Amino acid sequence: MSANGFTTEVIHSDRRQGSECGAVHQPLHPSTEYAFSDARELAAVFQGKAGFSYARQGTPTTAALEKQVTKMEQGTASVSFASGMAALSAIFLTLLKAGDHLISSKYIFGNTNSLLLTLQGFGVEVTLVDATDVEHVRAARKANTRMVFTETIANPGTQIADLQGIGEWCNQEGLLYVLDNTLSTPWLLTGRRVGASLVMNSLSKYIAGHGQALGGMVTDTGLFDWSDYPNISPAYRQGNPQSWGLTQIKKKGLRDMGGTLSSDAAHRISVGAETLPLRMQKACDNANRLAHFLAQHPRVTAVKYPGLDSHPQHERAQQLFDGRFGALLAVELAADIDVFDFLNRLRVVALATHLGDTRSLTLPVAHTIYYEMGAEQRALMGIADNLLRISIGIEDYADLEGDFSQALEQR
Question: In 204-275, which residue ranges form alpha helices assigned H by DSSP?
Answer without folding.
Answer: 244-250, 263-273
